[in-house]
What does this fold into?
Amino acid sequence: MKNNTNKIHVLDLNDRPWQAIKCGTKSIEVRANNDCSDFDYFQIHGGDIIRFINNTTGESLEVRVVDVRHYKTARELLETEGTKRTLSSGKDVVGGIDSIHSITGYKEAIAKNGVFAIEVEPN
It folds into this structure.
């Protein structure tokens, strides 16, 4: 039976990862549930749509969620998913961990709740 309950989620995104998703060089968005946001990433499922709003330009980009995978650590996520698909910075695993942990509240949130790899493709 087909799931007709797919949802549209609207999420802010910085310009560099927004551009990387738009041009197809980044296919995994990394997110963590933290105290600075009231959005629960456990709500996102395969088949849902994400409308990313570019924090710099205000442009929107819609993508379809292929799958959502949950990891205990940023290292586990980056080593499993690969840095090329997850990072727009070109950093290696260590640099990627530092970058992810530098997002306000993420280091503590990941230690407590883990981190999500949200695989997306153009809608």
User: Anything to note?
Assistant: The mean pLDDT is 94.
